[in-house]
């Protein structure tokens, strides 16, 4: 049983836990969420569970059904395409704005973040959660430099929706190393104040990710059909 911290409400606690279960894959895409089981496991009533599911549904992480309760939103090629279509446009804009405002100390921070990612990736037993968190930290720091809070908020939500797809990349040989090389190139372009080039490079970085994830999903579907 999970003990509820005194500084958050039961609903907030359940929401945080359920969200992590969905994003980590502990609750698999398409899986039915047993509200009674969740309530019992977390030591709460069903009311905060329902409230948490409402919030997750608003983020497109779960689907609510009138007679079947709730299920985790399935992964799909269309959903992936929709997310990355918007992400490419918004994140490209954020990188362009961030490049124009970049300070030397910001570039230093970004290079330190890349080194952190490299250290995590080269660890004898790489921590998937830590690698994903470090990657997110790097990107969100860049987007925060644009100094556009509304833009950043929308990007953060899109990242939450795409996190389950990004996890697919970690099992692909060479993907982490390739991503780190692209991160270095992105910071190099930003440091040179090549805003348009940096924006286009980031968009291509995202599109490459989308293509790899889509390819893996299609291969998995073909394997299941055999």
From TrEMBL:
Domain HTH gntR-type: residue ranges: 8-75
Pfam family, one: FCD
DNA-binding as UniProt keyword: yes
Protein name: GntR family transcriptional regulator
Matching PANTHER family: TRANSCRIPTIONAL REGULATOR, GNTR FAMILY, TRANSCRIPTIONAL REGULATORY PROTEIN
Keywords for this protein: DNA-binding, Transcription, Transcription regulation
Highest taxon of the lineage: Bacteria
Gene source species: Paenibacillus rhizophilus
GO molecular function: DNA binding; DNA-binding transcription factor activity
Keyword Plastid: no
